[in-house]
Amino acid sequence: MKEQKEVTLDRDLGLWSALALVIGTIIGAGVFVRQSAVLDDAGSTSMALFAWLAGGILTITAGLTIAEIASQMPETGGLYVYMERIYGKLWGFLSGWMQIIIYGPAMIASLGAYLAILLSDFFGFPSKYNAILAIGTIVLVGILNLFSNRYGATFAIITTICKLVPVAALIIFGLFFGKENAFGQSLVHVHQSAGNFGVAILATLFAFDGWILVANLGGEIKNPRKLLPQAITFGILAVLAIYLLVSYGVYRSVPAEQIHRLGTSAIPYIANQAFGQVGGKILSIGIIISIVGCMNGKIMTFPRIMYAMAKRGQLPFSKTLSYLHPKSHTPIFSTVAELLIVTVMIIFSNADRLSELCIFTVYCFYVMAFVGVFLLRKRNPNQHRVFSTPLFPITPILAIGGSLFVIVSEIMSDLPGVLTSFIFVAVGIPVFYYETKKYRESQAEAAKEESLDKEN
């Protein structure tokens, strides 16, 4: 026990590592496969570009709001820690529980499943091996994250750079060789459900999701009070610029009606037209690397929440889950536990559906965190802040409004799913009280034994 207490997380991640994790965790396959969906919902190329811009602005307001909290609470666990400090241990636990049991594993499993499809298409594997490919890839990335956090961070930087190559190719081709008008092309006459601008923004918000996960590494970032806000802010801004430029390039390259007909095949079609079959293969490799990088960011960050909760004795097997390897200084058992949950989801459930179910609860906790900025300022009016949310209170109000928009949209479109997500969260309540009681009893027993030892 004495050795374990001496082992701590390594605080050696710099700004570039944090930036790579923000960008790499956000950009998965969404920028490549959602172009047609956003265009269909928006109804025209102009409105689609505005939808990407609106989604990015709402995400930036969310990031700037959380950045103020992150600068005051630069600890491992991110949102879980913020909720605990602002609203109490139960709310903190429930936000963490939802992320480590359902949302995080489901997101990783969904990425693995989509990656397996791409790998099967690229190498010509039979689809019956997709589950094995998904699990195998996830395990390999997971093994990388059992070593020092420097390896995961380095991998994040490499994959982020690699994924920007096909992105840059699409942007350059569209800007300099595209012949279509990126503004003003309409889909109203070919798509009956076109023109739903709100749904288009909703689709882009999901494509921006993942920016907050870098906060889970607050205990491993150098000077986190300064670097966390910078990584979140500049990371989101970079992703917004990439999404807008890719969308503009796509709309310049192919007529809107053809993008609608091609659906998720629109960008592979552009690559083949622009660069031939080799270009299509290169783009496929870029998407594969993009997903692997996104997966790495999630596998690196979600186990940190489990570790932080276990350190407080709030989970079954907390002693094991809070263990840090003496050489790598990483929570190896929390990482393994998260990978086991992911594997079970891939084999026995629909991970895409599970991740969709949790969107509602994730945004409920987002709203509470955004409101928390007002509460913290009221509680500590004279506290010095290393970072303050710009244009306060407009910025957090916009962040709250964007999240409420997602919440209301989810209730209207998927009420059974919303109720199911409540069940997932509610299951954590008895777990919290049982484990908290057990932890307090064990602490009291340990204190009693220590007192007796001193007397003797």
UniProtKB/TrEMBL annotation:
Q: Could you tell me what this protein is called? A: Serine/threonine exchanger SteT
Q: Where in the cell is it found?
A: Membrane
Predominant subcellular localization, coarse grouping: membrane
> Which GO terms of the cellular component aspect does the record hold?
membrane
Membrane topology annotation:
Multi-pass membrane protein
UniProt keyword Kinase, yes or no: no
Q: Identify the species of origin.
A: Lentilactobacillus parakefiri
Q: What are the protein's GO molecular function terms?
A: L-amino acid transmembrane transporter activity
> Which stretches are transmembrane?
12-33, 45-69, 90-117, 129-147, 154-177, 197-219, 231-251, 282-307, 328-348, 354-376, 388-409, 415-434
